[in-house]
């Protein structure tokens, strides 16, 4: 019996010994015999690994792209809101300038009617006193309506900005002074200087906000 074999003696009937020889396991022969199967397993595993990595990269790429799209959409919405906000500020400011002009016009009319009323009273002209009295009443009623509208626009403009915004300090101080002119009984002529100052102050604010909007848009492109 060779060294590579294993022998076992079995007695079948008590007299005749029988030797069963079991050949030793040959690893190399087994490996060569099963090589095609092993190669197939390796190929399948490698293909699965490559597919997994490819799918993972694809999913990561899609997630990154989706996240970037969400960020871009968010920034676009912010820019859109800022455009709408700027337009709202412009329209509100234009309405304030219009109401300011109307206020000044009726303030002058009221003051002139008031002066004529005094002069007619001093002259004893009863019909003129009654005429100018009615004119003062009409101006007073119109000023009341204009003042209410002015307060509404003034409040709206304030709400469009952050509280105590440094750029708007001068603007709202100026607008406050316009409100006070409602009680100015000495003005006899129209003066557009305050309206020009309001426009100039607004241009400074709007320019700063527009530059901030453009910087945000350029930063996202």
Characteristic key phrases:
single chain; 221 residues; mainly alpha; two-stranded antiparallel ribbon; 5 helices; 2 strands; 76% helix; rod-shaped; disordered N terminus
SSE topology:
Layout: E1 5-11, E2 17-23, H1 27-33, H2 35-123, H3 126-159, H4 169-180, H5 193-219
Antiparallel strand pairs: 1-2
Question: What would you say this structure looks like, in words?
Answer:
With 221 residues, the protein is mainly α. It contains five helices and two strands. Strands 1-2 form a two-stranded antiparallel sheet.
Short description:
With 221 residues, the chain is mainly alpha-helical.
Low-confidence stretches: 1-7
Oligomer: single chain
Instruction: Tell me the total number of β-strands.
Output: 2
| Strand order, largest beta sheet | 1-2
- Major sheet summary line: 2 strands, antiparallel
Rg value:
48 Å
Tell me what portion of residues adopts beta-strand conformation.
5-15%
């Amino acid at each position: 019996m060779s060294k590579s074999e294993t022998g076992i003696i079995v007695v079948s009937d008590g007299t005749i010994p029988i030797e069963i020889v079991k050949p030793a396991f040959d690893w190399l022969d087994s490996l060569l015999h099963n090589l095609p199967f092993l190669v197939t397993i390796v190929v399948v595993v490698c293909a699965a690994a490559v597919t997994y990595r490819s799918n993972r990269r694809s999913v990561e790429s899609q997630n990154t792209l989706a996240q970037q799209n969400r960020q871009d959409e968010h920034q676009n919405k912010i820019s859109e809101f800022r455009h709408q906000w700027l337009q709202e500020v412009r329209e509100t400011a234009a309405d304030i300038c219009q109401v300011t002009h109307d206020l000044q016009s009726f303030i002058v009319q009221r003051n002139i009617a008031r002066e004529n009323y005094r002069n007619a009273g001093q002259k004893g002209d009863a019909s003129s006193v009654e005429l100018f009295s009615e004119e003062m009443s009409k101006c007073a009623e119109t000023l009341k309506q204009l003042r209410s509208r002015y307060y509404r626009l003034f409040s709206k403009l304030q709400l469009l900005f952050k509280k105590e915004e440094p750029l708007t300090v001068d603007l709202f101080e100026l607008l406050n002074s316009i409100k006070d002119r409602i009680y100015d009984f000495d003005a006899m002529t129209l003066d557009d200087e305050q309206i020009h100052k309001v426009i100039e102050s607004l241009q400074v604010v709007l320019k700063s906000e527009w530059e901030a909007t453009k910087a945000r848009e350029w930063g996202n492109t």
